[in-house]
## 1
Amino acid sequence: QKEVEQNSGPLSVPEGAIASLNCTYSDRGSQSFFWYRQYSGKSPELIMSIYSNGDKEDGRFTAQLNKASQYVSLLIRDSQPSDSATYLCAVNARGNKLVFGAGTILRVKS
Amino acid sequence: DAGITQSPRYKITETGRQVTLMCHQTWSHSYMFWYRQDLGHGLRLIYYSAAADITDKGEVPDGYVVSRSKTENFPLTLESATRSQTSVYFCATQSGVGANVLTFGAGSRLTVL
């Protein structure tokens, strides 16, 4: 079992819709959870971090964390074509390391 | 310029040659990381460093060597390159603003023929 799992996609949504990206992790001791966005040919950039159960909102983005289910999600409201990218879920592991999922490709159709 | 710089951005080499990828940061962050990114695997940690002269293995360290003689530099060396090391390599620092928050360099695309 991979430490961090994501559906590779692509996930296609129409412009203006809500995109829902999901991630599961295996280490119950993980405390820090991140979503990175990566445009094609570019480096990953942090868009959301979440450390406690529940929802965290930042503009059009909402991160959701459920530690009991070992599940992290990212919702993107009012999706725009500029949101088309690969979204990487990352979870902290022992030794101050981050473990990344393989990423979900999101395509927003105008 | 402030930030994290990787060089070279693109490199083509042959099997068996030694290659060094450079990473330089201007922030004096303690932690630095090297990841490789391959299709279907996402980012995989090769090595990381908690401070000057302190390095540790990540998930896929075989075939790689690192050093950290100065806080700002964290070079990654492939001692004898193999085709399986064809990849995009990202260096990152931990910003310290919140636990485990990483900032990445622009990446180095390495092709081993």
Note: The first strand of chain B starts at residue 4 and ends at 7.
## 2
Amino acid sequence: AQSVSQHNHHVILSEAASLELGCNYSYGGTVNLFWYVQYPGQHLQLLLKYFSGDPLVKGIKGFEAEFIKSKFSFNLRKPSVQWSDTAEYFCAAVVYNQGGKLIFGQGTELSVKP
Amino acid sequence: ETGVTQSPTHLIKTRGQQVTLRCSSQSGHNTVSWYQQALGQGPQFIFQYYREEENGRGNFPPRFSGLQFPNYSSELNVNALELDDSALYLCASTPGTGELFFGEGSRLTVL
């Protein structure tokens, strides 16, 4: 079965530290990949997405992610985090041509200390 | 704002009862899907509707059912509620581009 796994359940950083959140997916075919963010009390928001083309994808709020097909990975990065980045981050995948079912990882809670 | 609205935002039910959750999707989005997000977990796909027909279902029992209406709004119905059904239920709509737009969810507590 297709699955998405996120390596860290809870990450604590100080402001200005660099961030990298790991994400791996299990499907070997064509996938579309996403990172969503959920701020406390708010709805899931799309940070960035990869469908095809340049494997380095830039999203909103200074986030980027790199698709590495050989490693089945789609890690999220940000060079310098801010307190306002405190949120839960979800990696997700859609298997191409399988009805748009979005498979989520279990999430990584990021806490940024001011 | 995503243009996806859900109601109610919070509700409490007891075991064995039935619940209906509602979703109004963004204009022009003909596909709606529902997800269950238990505490500390990522959202789990329940099912998806395209033009009023279910066209995908996750690993949920038949007591989870849904409807999509001609205006593309949707309902999630859960019968014979169990304690483990306590969760945040998310509705998402898409215009078919692969990007989903989520509502803020309905938080269901089953006592």
Note: Chain B touches chain A at residues 2, 4, 31, 33, 35, 40-45, 48, 55-56, 58, 90, 92, 94, 98-100, 102-105 (CB under 8 Å).
